[in-house]
Amino acid sequence: MAWLERLVRKALADVEPYRPGKPISDVQRELGLREIVRLCSNENPWPIPEAVSTAIQSAAKEVNRYPDPGAYYLKRALARKWGVSPSEIIVGAGTEGVVYALFQAIIDEGDHVVHCMPTYPLHILAAKAAGATCVAVPLTDSFTPTADMIIAACSERTKVVIMCNPNNPTGTIMSRSELLSLAAHLEGMQTLLVVDEAYAEYVIDPRYVSGVELFRQLGNIVILRTFSKIYGLAALRIGYGIAPKPVVESFSKVKRFFEVNKIAQHAAVAALEQTAYIEEIRDRTLIEREKMLSVLSDLGVKVYPTHTNFLLLRVEDADLVAEDLLREGIIVRPGSDMGMQGFLRVSIGLPEENERFAASLRKVMKRAGRR
Ligand SMILES: Cc1ncc(COP(=O)(O)O)c(C=O)c1O
């Protein structure tokens, strides 16, 4: 029925659906394997703290009642953490939920959204879903975005610049001075800067600054954060943003009312208190990252400097290597999923998972005469 094909939104005709990392159960079913190592979605692989587990179990006893749509306790806890007002906080089902509603709240037909390329594909999808025209800023070989490059792509039609800092899938950061100059320039253009800081807790480089610091100085910044990474709550789907009040007000008109479930809210409040756990996970991740870097250097694989819990590897026939690794029970992310042919993105896993990855990669490379 051709009319049904004509009925759907024309603006979505060229939109490629998001390709997420493969779930463990799919690989088990499709390849008949039992032991799977999942290094494709940059999750925290360590168990969550006992106190968070307890909060989840106690909230699970109350699932007959709707969750608090205003996320009162979570917003207050976040406001305390960041020194902002609860009325400057937005919450959603992961960064994903926040970013989709955020774009719906601010994009008008014909608005441009500027983003780096490569970047986290869901930013582009969310912008297009809201009806924006996306303008890509291609990153140079070092994958480090600069304020000048981004500003050059902006015009009077640019309503929003969105970037990840650190960036996914490159692991690179924009320095404090660059971010400040970008934000200040965009404020002069009356353009909003959205900074997705999903991996901020892993960064130890002193040149890095969170957009929250700039939020207090400038009026045009939205910061996105998630509980899916270092906090270890990816399956609960909870994230948040810090945003200027007019943005929060518009957001509240389009956000799905009961989007953030009760278990997620309680878990997030408990997780925010676990500062020692967060530091421990960061330290363990950095130790494992060093080990992975040394193994990959022995294998002669080019790896890009990273500030996150994942590595970007230059591998000529990356798609084939990813498939071969999959047959070994190791799930990594082919760069082609993110518009980067010839690259693999590999998350830092548990020590034993990283060892299995290294052994399988060695085997796969040797077998195919890649080394
Ligand atoms: C840049 C970036 N933002 C956000 C997320 C997490 O999204 P969510 O909070 O929806 O789980 C990811 C996950 O891969 C990411 O890479």
Summarize it.
The protein is of the alpha/beta class and 371 residues long.
Which properties best describe this structure?
371 residues, alpha/beta, Aspartate Aminotransferase, domain 1, Aspartate Aminotransferase, domain 2, 2 domains, 7-stranded mixed sheet, 4-stranded antiparallel sheet, 14 helices, 13 strands, 42% helix, globular, binds pyridoxal-5'-phosphate
Structural features, described:
The structure is a single chain. The strands form 3 sheets. Strands 2-8-7-6-5-3-4 form a 7-stranded mixed β-sheet, with helices on both faces. Strands 9-10-13-12 form a 4-stranded antiparallel β-sheet. A two-stranded parallel sheet has the order 1-11. Strand 12 and strand 13 form a beta hairpin. It is α/β, with parallel strands linked by helices. It is built from 14 helices and 13 strands. Helix 4 (72-82) runs parallel beside helix 11 (262-272), helix 5 packs across helix 10 (245-254) and helix 12 (275-298) runs parallel beside helix 14 (351-367). The chain folds into 2 domains: 17-47 and 276-367, Aspartate Aminotransferase, domain 1 (Alpha-Beta Complex), CATH 3.90.1150.10; 50-273, Aspartate Aminotransferase, domain 2. It starts with a helix and ends with a helix. Pyridoxal-5'-phosphate (PLP) binds next to helix 5.
